[in-house]
Design a protein that fits this description.
Layout (H helix, E strand, L loop, with lengths): L9 E19 L6 E11 L10 E7 L8 E4 L4 E7 L3 E9 L7 E8 L13 E13 L3 H9 L3 E2 L12 E6 L19 E6 L2
Antiparallel strand pairs: 1-2, 1-8, 1-9, 2-5, 3-4, 3-6, 6-7, 8-10, 10-11
GO molecular function: chromatin binding
InterPro entries: YEAST_sf, YEATS_dom, YEATS_domain
Keywords: Nucleus
Length: about 200
């Protein structure tokens, strides 16, 4: 059980995990089925000035097995991969933090959805989707606290925090269905979150 007193420190950081998909003017016919979309998946700080290289050691993206080299590891910012395809698929992402305290990673079960445009509307040629994950750390060591703050994290008032049995936790903010994509700047992005998993 966490004992939060007047000397306790709590830091939090919001990460954005999302993707964009764009319908190609011409499919790539060297693949079967032809690849109709270009897409990218990313992990970013919700703070535009945050430097994730201070906090994240690497991100590993697990693509569908039909892709060559389907385990894609990115060791530097930006943490993003780009590919082409014809259909959506389940795309797990592992985020490794720069800390000596185990476990060092958090796994996100991400769904890559490639939108359709059956009526040919020009404003649906490209669409974006995003989810926000809030990481909360209770009494981190000074070095790790500075990494979180440099990456765009904030100190949190302990009066607003409910205690639990974890010294860190993660919340995911809910997102709309694929038919209602959001951009990272959409005011409807902020929704009540739910506790997902213990990090440390």
């Amino acid at each position: 059980m966490i004992d939060l007193d007047d000397d306790s420190e709590i830091v939090k950081i919001d990460l954005l995990v999302g993707h964009t998909s764009a319908i190609r003017a011409e499919p790539i016919n060297t693949h079967n089925p032809p690849r109709t979309h270009d897409w990218e998946v990313y992990v970013r700080s919700a703070d535009a000035h945050g430097d994730l290289s201070c906090l994240i050691q690497r991100c590993v993206f697990y693509l569908h097995p039909e892709y060559p080299n389907n385990k894609r590891e990115v060791n530097v910012t930006p943490f993003v991969i780009q590919e082409s395809g014809y259909a959506g698929f389940h795309l797990p992402i592992e985020i490794f933090f720069r800390t000596e305290k185990a476990p060092k990673k958090f796994r996100i079960e991400y769904d890559l959805d490639l939108h359709s445009n059956p009526e040919g509307h020009i404003n649906r040629q490209k669409e974006s989707y995003v989810r926000k994950y809030r990481y909360t750390f209770y009494d981190p060591d000074p070095d790790f606290r500075q990494k979180v703050l440099a990456a765009g994290g904030k100190m949190k008032d302990i009066d607003t925090v409910s205690t639990n049995n974890n010294d860190s936790n993660v919340e995911e903010e809910s997102t709309p269905p694929a038919s209602s994509p959001l951009s990272a700047s959409d005011p409807n992005l902020a929704r009540p979150g739910r506790d997902l998993e213990t990090l440390f």
